[in-house]
């Protein structure tokens, strides 16, 4: 329904769990994932990050100067099959010497890479990973993720690596193995062996595979991840099992105790509106519609989005100022909304239980005095100190359309935009 379907770790859709989050989960780059792999003993080819062609040459030389791979670092998958906006093909290239590494890095850096996960706007590449390349015998898939439907964590593994796991799930579900991890015992050695067997990792591949799975579980648990996806997990012609790519998501509620992880955050990869909102302690998620919502409480925010849709409108965002927001927070929230060019109208829907309605009103007036307002604004205020709030708005001279209740307000903003 109208629930925001944003930032869902793609693989979690396979588990059929809850499909919405109140925040986009934190993500890291592949070169940073490699640092975590090294720390936790997860086998993965050595690599170095580079921000210029010269750095790429130096990194390539450090790694032995031959048999290397250059990979664009963006928070999105599908890089191998992606295309840069300047026409350069592929965000993953095998190279044979340092000069070539520098050349390819030069083609990628400062350019925008479009993949099936970035959307048509693409993502700017400001760093590349130079890594030792391996000769691949077989590509597999391995992921550990939070499994809401079982209230624990699960492993998803498949013999079909290097491709879209959703596609595998749809066309050949028998090629996917799922193992539910006991919430307190963790991933057990027998489970690792079972997964290895399902992936065809037998003989001398068995022990390295079990070691990799346990190390990855350890890393997942210690770093409070909500998703670690290795695609591909590669079997090399040398008979090794290595993680060749990695996608991480972290549990936002645990970030306070993950200082090292937070230090890896790259805000240039995130929605600038969400970054600004998080600086002010606001819960904000950008959406595709044109009606901005300023609401207190996540439940009311979702109900507001639903009712906007019911009236034929589309929400531009999910913004929850919370129960104890200050005038400054409300004013900043309003400015973030006004700074979004897609927004064509604003709906403020406040039910003041803890929240003082007048604080909301003062925050709105302060923001508008600073940056102006040319869009229709519908306000529905109810609850704590509502009369003072209405008075503040009335005396401000702002052109406010007042909504009687939730449905009335939603209908009015949809109509105001259509007019
Ligand atoms: P993604 O396209 O963003 O998922 O990036 P990946 O890191 O998964 O790379 C895409 C594909 O490039 C992989 O599926 C592999 O087929 C190939 N690839 C990546 N690293 C290597 C490597 O070290 N050696 C070889 N031969 N192929 C690689
Ligand atoms: Mn991949």
Low-pLDDT stretches: 1-9, 16-21
pLDDT averaged over residues: 92
What level of helicity do the residues show? 25-40%
Shape: elongated
Radius of gyration: 25 Å
Alpha-beta classification: alpha+beta
Number of DSSP strands?
20
Bound molecules: guanosine-5'-diphosphate, manganese (II) ion
Largest sheet, in brief, is: 7 strands, antiparallel
Distance between the termini: 26 Å
Q: Total helix count?
A: 13
Structural account:
There is one protein chain. This protein is of the alpha+beta class and 419 residues long. The protein is built from 13 helices and 20 strands. The protein has helices spanning 30-40, 53-62, 98-108, 165-171, 189-198, 206-222, 259-262, 272-279, 298-310, 327-338, 357-371, 386-396, 406-418, and strands at 26-27, 47-50, 68-72, 83-84, 92-95, 112-114, 123-124, 128-132, 136-147, 152-158, 176-181, 225-236, 241-243, 247-250, 283-286, 291-295, 317-320, 345-352, 377-383, 400-402. Helix 5 crosses helix 6, helix 10 packs across helix 11 and helix 11 (357-371) runs parallel beside helix 12. It is elongated and about 75 Å long. 43% of the residues are buried. Mean pLDDT is 92; it is low at 1-9 and 16-21. Guanosine-5'-diphosphate binds next to strand 3, strand 5, strand 9 and strand 12.
């Amino acid at each position: 329904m109208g629930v925001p379907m944003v930032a869902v770790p793609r693989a979690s859709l396979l588990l059929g769990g809850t499909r919405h989050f109140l925040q986009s989960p934190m993500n890291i780059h592949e070169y940073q994932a490699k640092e975590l792999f090294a720390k936790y003993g997860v086998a993965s080819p050595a690599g170095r990050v580079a921000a210029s062609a010269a750095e790429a040459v130096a990194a390539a030389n450090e790694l032995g100067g031959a048999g290397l791979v250059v990979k664009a670092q963006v928070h999105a998958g599908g890089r191998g099959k992606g295309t840069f906006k300047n026409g350069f093909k592929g965000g993953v290239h095998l190279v044979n010497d340092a000069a070539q590494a520098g050349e390819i890095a030069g083609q990628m850096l400062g350019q925008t890479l479009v993949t099936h996960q970035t959307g048509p706007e693409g993502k700017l590449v400001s760093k590349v990973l130079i890594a030792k390349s391996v000769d691949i015998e077989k590509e597999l898939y391995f992921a550990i993720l939070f499994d809401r439907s079982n209230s624990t964590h699960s492993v998803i593994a498949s013999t079909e690596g290097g491709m879209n796991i959703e596609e595998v799930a749809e066309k050949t579900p028998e090629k996917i193995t799922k193992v539910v991890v006991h919430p307190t015992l963790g991933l057990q050695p027998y489970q690792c062996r079972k997964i290895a067997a399902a992936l065809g990792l037998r003989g001398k591949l068995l022990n390295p595979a079990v070691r990799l799975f346990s190390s990855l579980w350890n890393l997942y648990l210690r770093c409070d991840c909500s998703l670690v996806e290795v695609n591909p997990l590669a079997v090399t012609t040398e008979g090794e099992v290595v993680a060749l790519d990695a996608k991480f998501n972290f549990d936002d509620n645990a970030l306070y105790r993950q200082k090292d992880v937070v230090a890896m955050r790259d805000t240039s990869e995130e929605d600038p509106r969400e970054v600004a909102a998080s600086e002010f302690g606001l819960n904000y998620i950008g959406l595709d519609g044109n009606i901005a919502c300023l609401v207190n409480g996540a439940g009311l925010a979702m109900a507001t989005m639903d009712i906007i849709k019911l009236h034929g409108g589309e929400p531009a965002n999910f913004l929850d100022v919370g129960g104890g927001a200050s005038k400054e927070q409300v004013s900043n929230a309003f400015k973030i909304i006004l700074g979004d060019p897609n927004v064509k109208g604003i709906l403020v829907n406040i039910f003041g239980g803890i929240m003082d309605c007048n604080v909301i009103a003062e925050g709105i007036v302060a923001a508008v005095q600073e940056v102006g307002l040319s869009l229709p604004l519908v306000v529905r205020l109810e609850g704590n100190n509502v009369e003072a709030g209405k008075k503040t708005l009335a005396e401000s001279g702002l052109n406010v359309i007042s909504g009687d209740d939730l449905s009335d307000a939603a209908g009015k903003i949809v109509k105001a935009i259509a007019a």
